[in-house]
Automatic annotation (TrEMBL), chain A:
Any one GO MF annotation of this record: FAD binding
Domain FAD-binding PCMH-type: 1-177
Listed name of the protein: FAD-binding protein
Keyword Signal appears in the UniProt entry: no
InterPro entries, alphabetized: FAD-bd_PCMH, FAD-bd_PCMH-like_sf, FAD-bd_PCMH_sub2, FAD-linked_Oxase-like_C, Oxid_FAD_bind_N
Automatic annotation (TrEMBL), chain B:
This protein's record includes keyword Transmembrane: no
Protein name: FAD-linked oxidase C-terminal domain-containing protein
Keyword tags: FAD, Flavoprotein, Oxidoreductase
Superkingdom, taxonomy of origin: Bacteria
Swiss-Prot/TrEMBL cofactor(s): FAD
PROSITE patterns for this protein: FAD_PCMH
PANTHER family membership: GLYCOLATE OXIDASE SUBUNIT GLCD (PTHR42934:SF1)
Any coiled-coil regions, as ranges: none
The keyword Flavoprotein is annotated on this UniProt entry: yes
Domain FAD-binding PCMH-type: 49-227
SUPFAM superfamilies: FAD-binding/transporter-associated domain-like (SSF56176), FAD-linked oxidases, C-terminal domain (SSF55103)
GO molecular function: FAD binding; oxidoreductase activity
């Protein structure tokens, strides 16, 4: 493993690999090695020795971190200023990884429940420095909230899984932590009604910042007996008190609501964020599906029919499913997502299944040609994480 | 003056054939070639620059756009995408050898879905038109450029436009779920969809804000949001830019995210007050407009908190609006700022740079010094929450010397923005206006990397040529090759 301690080290390692045409696996701490397709390379280039926080400006709502800084270290720093990462990135329970890097989180564009109200991880990425597959250091964006100067390469890097270059440093927009949080919870709804209720909540003027549904198996995994439909509000204490009451009133037609206070809400939403409600067995696969919210329930049904269980976040728009890592189950997930015009990601599975063509949706031909040219624009020798996103 | 590339002689020579080809594709509708009818298209919001195009085409469907682009691609003809032409950076400025594709006839709202909270609209729908279509049901489309009455969602995609409320709701890129994009080769690509996360590269992210360099957006799926219960504004005036800046920091770090936080300096206050009679304090050096939202009780509580914070900075005056009418009056001055400055000066340049908010006092002081040095007045209006400066430089376009000075002053301000850690443009785009300043912000390696991405979409550099990327030294070519040498 090559793990440089300075930025130039990334450029020269890539330069050497490009000259020799020997592919590199790019990783932070390797926590998401199970996501998508595995890479088979002679060497690994890791950011784990390139950590630190060169700039934290609470008043400007920004933090700059080197890519190898752990998520925990970034969160601890922000804690000092009473602030947090807006997209509340997850620490998925099924990864069995004690820690992950901020570079890996951004490279995988991972966002938690708040994504539905406040945007994805990539929406808060204001600037990057990166070593491209050409062994060149580039910057894109900067440290200011609004920036439309030239093409926004930051956006391409967020969600690129290390296939365009190694992000070496990144600047994120952050926000003060809300003073309080509260959750309106309705028990016992069936999926269709639950999604309808969440849709009413998200269509209300009360700024709902989390909207999830846990079917029975998922609810049981986090200590409830029956299904729960939950909507979260985060704000100043007085607002949270007013808004949760008002929201419970609005949702009355779906059933009586309980209101969870700040500590109970924090625990529950952390579990939802980290995919803890997944009734996961050793050896099981995990899928994530992004879909129009009102189609979420149909994906749960289809999963159920294929022997899979899971839950809904993002008002129904994000479906987690888990179950046996069989070809049949994989095909069922893909078919259900396609019917709903949604997209899927394979987040955990044995190597055999991950080497299948579809660890995420294939790209239509017109776009595939552009994708190939874009990849070649950054990594002409094709040495960065080959095969990680798509079969080569 | 900014130079444009030499027109392609062979294309000019084939003018009639190109016109004929376009008419055939368009079934003899919406192809403009007559010079008097072309006149309205010769410029955009950067009206100091004018150029008659080869032709203007007004497509009605995505298939029209695809056919036109395929035709232009096959014939080596350059293309300039155009929405409402309100770009302040010359983004929609025609070229002599280019076909302008105007999107105004594609102005249909295709679908509104409240349950999943999105709307599908054609590129020629105006920004305000989207909100108008859903506001009766309590919804709105969040990004609100001051030009929202005129500018089109396709142009907003081109420029990644923002507005006064983007401190809370984000800019265009944060509010778009899907784009139907037509490539220069005439391929129709569906990017994103009606769901939140998309697998693979973030194509929406690279297309939004690309200033018509990568393709033409014909249909856009936007998120629509439920409007808050209510909003209310307040004014706070201070006797110095520095204290006003410190007050902004204090508000934001207290955990309050106002929906809008606007900063006006003394010349801006005076110009706007003379125009709108909004009751602005004329003895102030700096003024903040702060808007919050929620129920009436929440508004009271938040404005009370903000008042307490402002009070720590010795304000000259504090005025909390008590009604929707009073809030509207407070905004009237700000929203009329461009018109107001237009009244006190024959012409003005509206600059658009972004700075880290901590550098605000320094930057305003330096702008004041430059104003004295150039002998040109400047008024500063500022989205204070996100560091987006809009200095309005006043000059007289009938006096060429005055105009050159204004341009040089503007360039100095933008260089200053970059020097303090900011950037050349926060929302208006690079266009032709800031094209040659790109080298101030980016290294040659960084520019080259951006050019390669452009080439991946548009290998022959036919789309909005000579915008965004500085021309290569010694040539009039912006692209890696393929463009003719300067005359
Ligand atoms: C403790 C441990 C456990 C492991 N368990 C497994 C396992 O169960 N299954 C398995 O297959 N492998 C496992 N591995 C191997 C390892 O996960 C893979 O070698 C590696 O591909 C994954 O790295 P990672 O980037 O996911 O890490 P992350 O840091 O989580 O990165 C996520 C994605 O982003 C990319 N990336 C990371 N940092 C950057 C950056 N700065 N710039 C650009 N892109 C970046 C990565 O290439 C990857 O695509 C394990 C490794 C360790 C150390
Ligand atoms: C008075 C005034 C106030 C303004 N206030 C603001 C403000 O508050 N915030 C802000 O962000 N901007 C503001 N602007 C600038 C301008 O209104 C925005 O940039 C707007 O988004 C441009 O929209 P348009 O439809 O006029 O596009 P145009 O000016 O026609 O085009 C803008 C760019 O987008 C490209 N383009 C147009 N349509 C498409 C398409 N369908 N597909 C691909 N590319 C396309 C063009 O080639 C060009 O590069 C203001 C302008 C004026 C005149």
């Amino acid at each position: 493993m090559i793990a440089p301690g300075d930025e130039a080290g990334f450029a020269s390692a890539i330069d050497a690999a490009a000259a020799a045409r020997t592919p590199l696996t790019i990783e932070g701490l390797g926590s998401k090695g199970g996501f998508l397709r595995p890479t088979q390379t002679a060497d690994t280039l890791s950011t784990r020795n390139f950590a630190g926080i060169p700039l934290y400006a609470p008043q400007e709502l920004i933090i700059t971190a080197r890519a190898g800084t752990t998520l925990a270290a970034v969160e601890a720093k922000l804690d000092e200023g009473g602030q947090h990462l807006i997209a509340e990135p997850p620490q998925y329970a099924f990864l069995d990884a004690p820690d992950q890097t901020i570079g890996g989180i951004v490279a995988a564009n991972l966002s938690g429940p708040r994504r539905i109200a406040w945007g994805a991880m990539r929406d808060h990425l204001m600037g990057i420095r990166a070593a491209t597959g050409r062994g060149e250091i580039i910057r894109s964006g900067g440290r200011v909230l609004k920036n439309v100067t030239g093409l926004d390469l930051c956006k391409l890097f967020a969600g690129s899984y290390g296939t365009l270059g190694v992000i070496t440093e990144l600047t994120l927009k952050i926000l003060p932590k809300p003073e309080a949080t509260g959750t309106v919870m309705i028990r016992g709804l069936r999926p269709d009604d639950a999604v309808r209720a969440l849709s009413v909540a998200l269509g209300s003027p009360f700024s709902v910042s989390g909207a999830a549904y846990l079917p029975q198996e998922a609810a049981m995994a986090v200590g409830f007996e029956n299904t729960v439909t939950i909507a979260r509000i985060e704000d100043f204490a007085a607002s949270v008190a007013y808004r949760t009451e008002a929201l419970a009133g609005l949702l009355k037609k779906f059933g009586p609501a309980d209101i969870l206070d700040t500590p109970a809400s924090l625990t529950l939403w952390r579990a939802v964020r980290d995919a803890e409600p997944l009734p996961i067995q050793p050896g099981d696969a995990v899928w994530k599906i992004s879909v129009r919210p009102s189609y979420g329930a149909s994906i749960l049904h289809a999963g159920h029919a294929a022997g899979l269980f899971g839950y809904l976040d993002w008002g129904g728009g994000l479906v987690f499913l888990t179950g046996p890592a069989t070809d049949e189950a994989h095909a069922a997930v893909i078919a259900a997502a396609r019917r709903a015009k949604g997209e899927w990601w394979l987040l955990r599975a044995p190597e055999r299944l991950r080497l299948s063509e579809d660890a995420m949706p294939r790209i239509p031909p017109g776009l595939a040609a552009i994708r190939q040219r874009v990849v070649a624009a950054f990594d002409p020798a094709g040495i960065l994480n080959p095969g990680r996103m798509f079969a080569a | 003056m900014i130079s444009l590339p030499k027109p392609k002689a062979d294309v000019l020579a084939r003018r009639d054939a190109v016109h004929q080809g376009l008419r055939a594709i368009m079934r003899d509708r919406g192809v403009i070639t007559d010079p008097t009818k072309l006149k309205p298209y010769e410029t955009d919001g950067l009206s100091a620059y004018r150029q008659m195009p080869l032709a203007v085409v007004l497509p009605e469907t995505t298939e029209d756009v695809a056919a036109i682009l395929r035709f232009c691609h096959e014939n080596g003809v350059r293309v300039v995408p155009r929405g409402a032409g309100t770009s302040l950076a010359g983004g929609a400025l025609p070229l002599e050898d280019a076909v302008v594709i105007g999107m105004m006839r594609m102005n249909r709202i295709v679908e509104v879905n409240y349950r999943d909270r999105y709307a599908v609209v054609q590129a020629g729908v105006t920004n305000l038109g989207i909100t108008k279509a859903v506001e009766a049901d309590g919804f709105f489309y969040a990004p609100d450029p001051s030009s929202q009455l005129a500018c089109m969602i396709g142009g907003n995609i081109g420029m990644n436009s923002g507005g006064a409320h983007c401190l809370k709701y984000g800019v265009t890129a944060n509010n778009v779920l899907g784009i139907k994009l037509v490539t220069i080769e005439g391929e129709i690509l569906e990017l994103g969809g009606t769901h939140l996360d998309t697998a693979g590269y973030d194509w929406l992210g690279i297309v939004i804000g690309s200033e018509g360099q990568l393709g033409i957006a014909t249909e856009i799926t936007v998120r629509i949001l439920r409007a808050p219960e209510g909003t209310r504004a307040m004014l706070a005036a201070f006797d110095g830019n520095e204290v006003a800046g410190a007050c902004v920091d204090a508000i934001i770090s207290s955990g309050i995210i106002p929906v809008a936080l606007e900063f006006m300096d003394r010349p801006a206050i005076h110009a706007c007050e003379a125009f709108a009679h909004a009751g602005y304090p004329l003895d102030a050096e700096a003024m903040l407009i702060i808007e919050v939202e929620g129920s009436v009780a929440e508004q009271d509580w938040l404005l009370g908190r903000i008042k307490e914070i402002c009070a720590r900075f010795n304000p000259i005056s504090l005025k909390v609006s008590q009604s929707a009418e009073e809030s509207a009056a407070i905004w009237k001055g700000r929203k009329g700022a461009f018109g107001a400055v237009g009244r006190i000066s024959p012409d003005y340049l509206c600059m658009d740079g972004t700075i880290p908010t901590s550098t605000l006092p320094l930057v305003l002081r330096r702008i004041g010094e430059m104003s004295a040095q150039y002998g040109l007045q400047v008024a500063n209006i500022f989205h204070a929450g996100d560091g987006n400066l809009h200095p309005l430089i006043m000059f007289d376009a009938n006096d060429p010397a005055s105009m050159h000075k204004a341009e040089a002053f503007g360039a100095d301000i933008l260089c200053l923005c970059v020097e303090v850690g900011g950037c050349l443009t926060g929302e208006h785009g690079v266009g032709v206006e800031k094209r040659d300043l790109m080298r101030v912000q980016f290294t040659e390696i960084e520019l080259e990397q951006q050019r390669r991405v452009k080439s991946a979409f548009d290998p022959e550099w036919l789309l909005n040529t000579a915008k965004v990327f500085p021309l290569q030294p010694g040539t009039a070519s912006a692209g890696p090759d393929a463009l003719p040498q300067a005359a």
